[in-house]
Predict the structure.
Amino acid sequence: MTRIILIGYMGAGKTTIGRQLAMALGLQFYDLDWYIETRYHKKVSEIFAEQGEEHFRDLERRMLHELAEFEDIVISCGGGTPCYYDNIQYMNQQAETVYLKLDPEVLCMHLKMGRTVRPLILGKSEDELLQYIKDSLREREPFYSQAKHTLDVSLMDNYEKIAITIKLLREELGL
Ligand code: S3P
């Protein structure tokens, strides 16, 4: 049985890498945010706006517990998932956890280009965004770094590099 959970900051490429990794290993892929949106028939941004972040974190925890029972699966989590409750301990108990690590400057670039609506960074200027990433990454790093594996993906910005990342990830996981 193989179960892999990818964690890391918003814009780290968890979904892109997760989907490709699952395909390469013949596993099922799930994105936790999408799973929440499908189960609750609401966008994550709407849950944040209508019910607040605390409510979202509770749903996120419950849906993580549902998903992380499935077998032969790759799960990409939200950027905040490992940083609340005992989620990171639970993930480590259930799966091979991988932290996709990137520098704040690269994350900022990815998030600026991103088309996804992310409630935590909505309406921020470029300077504000970079400062926000630096501050929150400092707070989140102690959680992210508890993953069983860490992979620096700073260089991943085109398909060739995605393929290299998948190769490195498979070597790291021995799969
Ligand atoms: C969040 C990251 C988002 C989503 C929500 C909160 C966070 O997921 O779960 O907007 O706290 O970092 P992505 O990392 O997939 O953008």
User: Anything to note?
Assistant: Residues 33 and 135 are 23 Å apart (CA to CA). DSSP finds eight helices and five strands in the chain. The helical segments are 14-25, 32-40, 44-51, 53-67, 87-94, 104-113, 126-144, 159-173.
